[in-house]
Amino acid sequence: MRRMFGSVRSRATLAATIVVAVALVAAGTAVLLSLRSNLIGQAGTAAERSARTVATGLAAGKTYEQLSLDDDDQPVQVVDEKGRLVAATENLERISGTGTDAVRPQTPTPTPTPTGGSDDDADEEVDVDDDSSPHPGEIDEKATFTNGSATIDHQSADYRFASVRVETDGQGLLTVYAGEALSAEQSAVNTALTVMLIGFPLLLTVVAVVTWLVTRRALRPVEGIRGEMAAITASEDLGRRVPVPDTHDEVARLARTTNETLAALETSVERQRRFVADASHELRSPIASLRTQLEVGAAHPELLDLEGAVEDTVRLQHLAADLLLLARLDAGERPTGGRLDLAALAREETAGRPGVSVEAAEAVEVAGSRGQLQRVLTNLLDNARRHTRSAVTVSVRREGEWAVAGVADDGDGVPDGDRERIFERFVRLDDARSRDDGGAGLGLAIARDVAARHGGTLTVRAAPTGGALFELRLPLA
Q: How many angstroms separate the CA atoms of 137 and 168, rounded?
């Protein structure tokens, strides 16, 4: 069952079918109730019309024998004010839902009509008159309705009964009950219910099939994207791209976003490969040099260049530290630490360096890792020392919400076309190709990555003295 409804297409089809089914059941129930109410209302109207016809005859002075009550399809009862049945439809065998269950009329005891009396007796007769009852010869405007059943000439059926009161001169207050068969209502409701029971499943089947086909067509591009991603995963070829459908919907945007992700991933992997290759190349040279010197020293101790071996070892140590720091930064390591004074840190780093001056009039506090920010200043100062002619100037100041540390030299500067390239890893410009002079080309890359991890930037532009000016911008603490 889980596998059956494990796809979006299956769940969409099931959801659409359930929604339509609920809507159809609700609409069908409303239609059946409305149809039944209307037909019962029509039956009640017909029953009231029949009851008033009989009541009109009684009000006109007809006797019970003169009433036309021989309709085999319509039960009629006439009940007096004492609840006795005084007239009924011929062949009426059973009845329920009216004022009495009797089916055979009873002969009423005649009530003598007073021929005379005092004025007091007349007044007493007026006093007992009920204003809510019809006056002699009048028919009550209101009719009451009930549901019941009756059997006429061995034919049983359900009826809608209407009762109407009429005041007569000779018989007093009478109540006429007339019924209208509900067979038409029941037949219509049953027919509608049968149509719904047959039609609803067919309609739900059509909805399910159409939803399945439409969903399959809509999700076909998604299946193409999934298939291409599976092929890319299997082949490990990040140069491939998923197909973008010629639409402007969410699927097309998904395909474009996927291709952008693949492009970024390809760039990252290529950068990682280049980094590994360059790191291997940079490590190979000092390791090979150190091994050669040690092998020569082992064979001829008098020829061992101990100073050179120490230099290669230190260089190898620095390179390994740089590579480890870059690896931590690439892994998303966030700086930890508290507040520190960037101006004091600059004075500390420039102390003991010849030809370096510091311009910092006030304390400038930032938040971050003291060790990493110290590494940035060290790398910038080392880079400036390699390219300056005479002097290096370090300045620390506030600019709005930023702390700005600048390192300027009076060398040849950085050409405009190389001002972004020098921040790439293992990049050395032509005038610094010597590994002894220019290092491995990781210092500026590390400095920019650390600045970015601290929410800042590191840029380079021309210095007022003609050299290069590196500016580190960090948010104030």
A: 5
Q: CATH topology for 250-330? A: Helix Hairpins (1.10.287)
Residue 55 burial (CB < 10 Å; 0-12/13-18/19+)? buried
Angle (CA) 272-273-277 rounded to 5° is: 115
Tokens representing 375?
């590494």
Q: How confident is the model at residue 136 (pLDDT cuts 50, 70, 90)?
A: low
pLDDT on residue 345? 92
Burial class (CB in 10 A: 0-12, 13-18, 19+), 198: exposed
Parse the chain into domains and list their residue ranges: 1-106+131-235, 250-330, 339-475
C-beta of residue 251 within 8 angstroms of C-beta of residue 215: no
Q: Taking the model in full, what pTM does it have?
A: 0.51
Beta strands 392-399 and 356-359 are parallel
CA gap 136, 139 in Å, rounded = 9
Averaged pLDDT, 228-246: 87
Distance (Å) of CA 74 to CA 158, 236, 264, 313, 446: 11, 88, 87, 120, 104
- Tokens found for residue 255: 């395909």
Task: Identify the helix (H) or strand (E) that includes residue 357.
Answer: strand 356-359
pLDDT at residue 17 in the model: 92
pLDDT at position 206 is 93
* CA 132, chain centre distance (Å): 64
pLDDT digits (tens, 9 = 90+) for 76-91: 999 998 888 989 888 8
Round to whole Å and give the CA distance between 237 and 229: 10
Q: 237, 26 in Cβ contact below 8 A?
A: no
Task: Say if residues 355 and 390 touch (Cβ distance below 8 Å).
Answer: yes
Q: What is the pLDDT of residues 332-371, one digit of tens each?
A: 777 777 889 999 999 999 988 898 899 987 888 999 888 8
| pLDDT at residue 439 in the model | 61
Which SS3 state, helix, strand or coil, does residue 243 take? Answer: coil
**CATH class for the domain made up of 339-475:** alpha beta
Helix (H) or strand (E) holding 405: strand 402-409
Q: Residue 200 is encoded by which pair of tokens? A: 């609803």
Work out the angle between the directed axes of helices 342-350 and 370-387 (0-180°, nearest 10).
50
- Cα-flanking dihedrals φ and ψ of residue 162, to 5°? -120, 135
Residue 476: strand, helix, or coil: strand
Of residues 16, 17, 18, 24, the one with CA closest to residue 200: 24
